[in-house]
Write a structure and sequence with these properties.
About 70% of the residues lie in helices and about 5% in strands. By secondary structure, the protein is mostly helical. Helix 6 packs antiparallel against helix 7, helix 8 (about 180-190) packs antiparallel against helix 9 (about 195-205) and helix 11 (about 230-240) runs antiparallel to helix 12.
Length: about 325
Amino acid sequence: MKSKGILSDTHQLTRITILAGIVLVLAVISFAGYYYYDRYYNEPEPDTQEMFVAQAEQAVRDDPKDPEKRLALAETYMFAQRFTDAIAQANQVLIAEPENQRAWLVLGVSNSSLGNPNDAIEPLTKFINARKDEDMPGLDKSLQAAAYFLGDSYLQLNRPQDAIEPLTLAVNWSKTDADAMYKLGMAHSAVKDYPNAVNMFHAATAFVPDFLEAYEAMAIAYDAAGKPEYGDYARGMAAYSKDDYQTAVELLQKAAQAKPDYSLTWAGLGLTYEAMGDLKAALEAYHSALRIDPNNFNAKTGLERVNALVNEQ
C-alpha cells in the first residue's frame, strides 16, 4: 500500500486553511485572525460553513456601520471561497478604514484566487510592507500568506523575476511550506536559474514525497540544465506519484545505475517498493540510501515504517 506524504492532496494549490480561532460571542462569529490558502486545508462540513456565513451576514445586518463586523464577514466569505463577495466587503471596510491591514489581505488573496493578479498586487504589497519588519515575521502566518499570494500573482502575470523576492520571503518565513517552495522553483526555472529551481523542487518534495507537479517541473529543469540522469530520477518519482510503480522502478533503477551514489534515487526506490508491497526490496533500498546519506528523511522514516510492518508479520 502506498505510503502517502504528510501533505498528499493532488490539488494542493486550491485549498484554504483557517489559521486562527473562531470565537462565538452572543451568537456572532468573530474571526480573530486570518486565512491561508494552501495544501494543508481540510474543508469543514458545508452546513457548518453556511452557518458561519449566515451568522456573519446577520451581524452586519444588525450593525452595518461597524467595520469590524463587515471585515469578519469579508474574511468569512474568503474562507468559504466566495471571493467576489469577500472583495466587495473588504472594499467597504477600506472606505471607512483605508489603512486596515486585514482588509488589504482579504482583497489581495481573493483577487489572486479569482485570477485577478493585477488587483492583488497593490494590497498584498502594502500588507507585506506594513508587517515585514516585525520582530518574528516567521510566526505571522498572514504575512506568509501575503508573500505567497503576491509571488503567485506575479507568476500569473508571467513576471517570474518579480515573483522571486516575495516567494523567497514566504519560504524563509515558513520552512515547511511545500507550495511556496514549488512556486519559487517555478519562478527560478522560468528565468533559467535551474540550480536554484531544482533546489526548491527538492525541498518541496522532501516534505511531500508524492508531489507530482514538483517532480514534473524538476525533470524539465534537470533536462534543461543538461542533467538527464537526474531527470530520470524526477520522472521516476513522478511515475511513483501517479501510482505507476512499474515505470517508477524502471526509471529509478536507470537513474541509480547512472548515479549510484545519489541517495534520493534509492529512497525513491524504497518508497516505490514499499507501495508495491515488496518489503524486502524496500528495506534494501532504504538501507542503500542511508549508507550514502544517513540524514535522508524519507529513507529514515520509510525504514521505520517497513521495519514495523515486518515485525508485525
